[in-house]
Amino acid sequence: MKWAEQTGLTALRKMDPERAHGLAITALKLGLTPKPGPVTSPRLKTQIAGIALPNPVGLAAGFDKNAEALHPLSQAGFGFIEVGAATPRPQTGNPKPRLFRLTEDKGAINRFGFNNQGMDAIAQRLAKRPKDAVIGLNLGANKDSENRAEDFTKVLKNTRDHLDFATVNVSSPNTEKLRDLQGAEALNTLLQGVMAVRGTCPVFLKIAPDLTDTELSEIADIAQQNQLSAIIATNTTLDRDGLKSRHKNETGGLSGVPVFEKSTRVLAKLANQTDIPLIGVGGVSSAQDAYAKIKAGAHAVQLYTALVYQGLSLVEDIIYGLDGLLENDGFAHISDAVGTDKDIWL
Known about the structure:
By secondary structure, this protein is an alpha/beta fold. It has a single domain (about 35-345), classed as Aldolase class I (TIM Barrel, Alpha-Beta Barrel). Helix content is about 35%, strand content about 15%. The protein contains 11 helices and 13 strands. The chain has helices spanning about 5-10, 15-30, 70-75, 120-125, 150-160, 185-195, 215-225, 260-275, 285-295, 305-310, 315-330; strands at about 45-50, 50-55, 55-60, 80-85, 100, 105-110, 135-140, 165-170, 205, 230-235, 255, 280, 300-305. The strands form 3 sheets. The chain has an 8-stranded parallel beta barrel with strand order 3-4-7-8-9-10-12-13, surrounded by 5 helices. A hairpin with a 2-residue loop joins strand 1 and strand 2 (about 50-55). The protein is globular and about 50 Å long.
């Protein structure tokens, strides 16, 4: 990490977390962040759901909710970028404060509630996206919607022509009863509606880490039946075991280092149940973490919370570190490592 980035992170961590996040987006738009460009190697170039990626390290949804920083993020080293979540109508989300750093735990708790500027504003920005980047959109539903399943189809119909993939997000804990859509019947109905309007856009599903083995098995079957292109495992958790930080009992979803083991176990279980490509997210803060997710069954990984503590230069560090770990273990290509250690997580 460069001195200027470290100084900036120190200053941001003294501010209210949500204000600091806003300033981080502003810094990106002003060109004040690392710009290594697309980072790749023959070992790391890969595909997921037929989408060519320069590397398997992506940005998780939630960082750039409104697709405001697509061009600078496309130069930050990521292999792919997911923005949103987007809902049909703009909404302010839950009351503030709603974002909390758990510094001692290297985690965060948020209860944003899908605050965003709505699908129309986001679609306008996606229409001007960089064409050489891989960009997806996290689909959400309005809190006061009378038909949340229909909201997902509305957002996808409005944005699909500008996307490389779209993610159905029924796993956020911050919109009341949203996770109910992970139930077998409700999820199947929702996905049928989404797949009917997707056109050629690949559809991913993002799931929670707090599912039972039975629920996980049902979701794997439904994802297979609906021919989804990938599953993202996982979103934030409601679990608070082992936390030390003073904000540990705040309501919302927990992300970062504390969710790593739980999300990786879910990932490995899915890898044992389905051939659908998997994207591992939850607590990735080093090349070793990314490598562990891949060996547990992930074809690619995403991160977000670790950037709060280590900055955007972490992306490049993880990518080059991952390349070195693969080389040291004798893997000619990342695909050779996928799932090689999944049994230790079961």
